[in-house]
Amino acid sequence: MNTILRRLNCRRQRGAAAVELAIVLPILIIVMTVPIFFGRYFWHYTVAHKAAQDAARYLSTVSEREMRSPSLAATAGQIANGIAAEEIADLSPGRAAPTIEVFCGAANNCIGYGELPMPETIKVRVTMNIIDNVFGVVGTGLYGRAIKAEAEVRYVGR
Q1: Of these four, 40, 72, 86, 126, which has the most CB atoms within 10 Å of its CB?
Q2: Is the pTM of this model over 0.85?
């Protein structure tokens, strides 16, 4: 008789655990989406910042002869742009394509310096959006949350 009561009690407890899980699981999933989204957000930012650093580091080592020539400076700028684009290619940032901007100095976008003084700094800016496409719970809007990573280094080819 005792064994029959124990079995019935065990079955009731298993059912109670299933009901508790059914109540708590949706809440737990919603609560976990925010840390997962921000983890993805910071991972995308880190990759974008590393891409900007690598592109700026490459462009800062371009020789003075190349920077003075308009065609060679434009080619070096395109190579730096390609370095950053290749590093962020595996990310799925959102609906809008990432933008990569390369600046040689304050106002010159790597178009060649000729007789002008060489730039002090090289700056690369990567801008992209990230959307919560995993759970769809975090409100990111139509185009997502903006990520703007920027790296600025001194031009060492002087």
Answers
A1: 126
A2: no
Interatomic CA distance for residues 73 and 67, integer angstroms: 5
Q: What are residue 154's DSSP bridge partners? A: 121
Number of residues that make up the chain: 158
Asked if 102 contacts 110 with a C-beta cutoff of 8 angstroms, the reply is yes
Residue 148's pLDDT band (cuts 50, 70, 90):
very high
Spatial distance between the Cα atoms of 78 and 76, rounded to a whole number of angstroms: 5
Tokens of 118: 């060489």
- Grouping H, G, I as helix, E, B as strand and the rest as coil, residue 100 is strand
| Rounded-to-integer distance, Cα 17 and Cα 8, Å | 15
Rounded Cα gap, residues 134 and 92, in angstroms = 11
Amino acid identity of residue 4, one-letter, is I
Residue 60 contacts residue 155 (beta carbons within 8 Å): yes
Helix (H) or strand (E) holding 124: strand 121-130
The pLDDT, as a whole number, for residue 32 is: 82
What residues does 102 pair with on adjacent strands? 124
